[in-house]
Amino acid sequence: MSKDILSHFKQKSDNSGKITKPSSDSSMRPSSNVATKVAQNITSKPLLDSNVTKVVQKVAPAISTSKVSFPQRWQIVGSHLIKNVPKDTQFIRTLHTDRDSEVEDGNKNLVKVAAFDLDGTLISTKSGSTFSRSPNDWKFWHRNDKQESESVVVRKLNELVAKKYLIVIFTNQGAVVANPTMKSYTNFTKKLNDIVNKIKEGIESKDTEILVFAAPKKPAKNASKSSSDEQFAYVRKPGRGMWDELTTYLRDKAGYEVDIENSIFVGDAAGRDGDFSDSDLMFAKNVKCEFNTPEEFFQLE
Ligand SMILES: [Mg+2]
Fold first, then answer.
1. Which of 22, 30, 44, 113 is spaced 20 to 30 Å from 125 by Cα?
2. Mean pLDDT score of the chain, rounded to an integer?
3. Are 195 and 123 contacting, i.e. CB atoms less than 8 angstroms apart?
4. Residues with CB under 5 A from ligand 1 (ion)
5. 284, burial (CB in 10 Å: exposed 0-12, middle 13-18, buried 19+)
6. Is cis: bond before 238, omega within 30 of 0?
7. Ligand 1 centroid to residue 236 C-alpha, Å
8. Element (H, E) at 38
9. Residue 223 Cα, ligand 1 centroid: separation in angstroms?
C-alpha cells in the first residue's frame, strides 16, 4: 500500500516536470497532507459559528482552559493607550447570571460597571508624596489617610462583585510612557499587578476579573509616536476614550452592552476645593454615568 502511494506520488511529480528525490520525507507527504486536511475539517466547522459557541458557553459556564493571568496580558494600543483586559470573556457571563432574572424589558445583554480612578481613589502613596516613588509606594486609600486599611476599599469592591458589577480602573498616567522598555512602564505595570492581586485576595468570587485602562504620557514632539494628538486627547480623562474602549471590548468580544443607568464612576478629581482638577467628574458627565467622590462612595466608618 505504501509502495502504491510512493509510486503515485513519484509519477505525479515526474509529470509536472519537477525533479523529485524519493527520500523518506517526500514519501510521507501525501499521507500527512490527508491527516492535516482531516484535522482542519474537524476543527474549523461548527466551533467558529458564534451561535454555537454561545450555546456551548451557556451549557458549561465558568470553565476556561486557556486562562491568561493578569500580569501576562498587558497591551499597548498605538502609543496612546495601555490596557489590561481578559481575552476570554467567559467571566462576563458569570457576572451577568443574576441580571437575567432582574431585567424585565427583554434586554438581557447588560453589564453594570463600577469604575474607579486609581491614584487618590483606590490607592494613595505610602510616602505621602503626590506620585509613587517606587512600584511599592502605595496603600489602599483611606479618608483620614492614617491607617493602612485594606478593609474599606477591598471590602466595598467585594460587595460590588457580589452584586454582579464589573470592576474597571480608568487612570490618567501622565508620567508613564507606553513602551515596555521604559522604566515608567514596567514600574506602572508591576504596581498594578500587585494592586490587582491584593484586591483579588479580598474578593470571595475567585473568577473575578479587573479591567484596567490607562492614558499614558504623550511623547515629546520629536519622539517617534504612533498615535495622533487627537487620540491622546480622547483617551485622557475627561475625554471619554477609555470608556469607549471598554464599551467596544464588551460589545465586540462578548456581545454585551454597559448598563449605564446602573453604572458608576468614582474619582477624586471632582473640582472641589483643593482638588487639582475636575477631570474625573467631567469624565463621568461625558459618559453620562453616576459619579461619586471616594469619600462619598467608600462610606467610611
Ligand atoms: Mg486621582
1. 113
2. 80
3. yes
4. 117, 119-120, 268
5. buried
6. yes
7. 13
8. helix 24-44
9. 27
> Three-class SS of residue 228?
coil
Ramachandran region of residue 93, left (φ > 0), alpha (ψ -120 to 50) or beta? alpha
Task: Write the CATH number of the domain with boundaries 71-297.
Answer: 3.40.50.1000
The structural domains of the chain, with segments of one domain joined by +, span 2-44, 71-297
Let me know: does 265 contact 170? Beta carbons within 8 Å: yes
CA dihedral in degrees (47, 52, 53, 59; nearest 10)?
-130
Place of cell 459556564: 61
Q: Among 42-46, 75-79, 201-205, 276-280, which is the least confidently predicted range?
A: 42-46
Compute the distance from residue 73 Cα to the ligand 1 centre, in Å. Answer: 24
The C-alpha atoms of residue 114 and residue 95 are separated, in whole angstroms, by: 12
Between CA 71 and CA 78 the distance in angstroms is 20
Distance 268 CA to ligand 1 centre (A): 5
Task: Give the Å distance between the CA of 171 and the centre of ligand 1.
Answer: 7
Mean pLDDT calculated for residue range 85-107: 69
Q: Is the distance from CB of 88 to CB of 62 less than 8 angstroms?
A: no
pLDDT for 279 beyond 90: yes
250 by DSSP, 3-state: which?
helix
Residues found in the chain: 301
Amino acid identity, residue 190?
K
Q: Are 110 and 99 in contact (CB under 8 A)?
A: yes
CA 74 – ligand 1 centroid, Å:
21
Whole-angstrom Cα distance, residue 253 to residue 209? 15
- pLDDT of 225 higher than 70: no
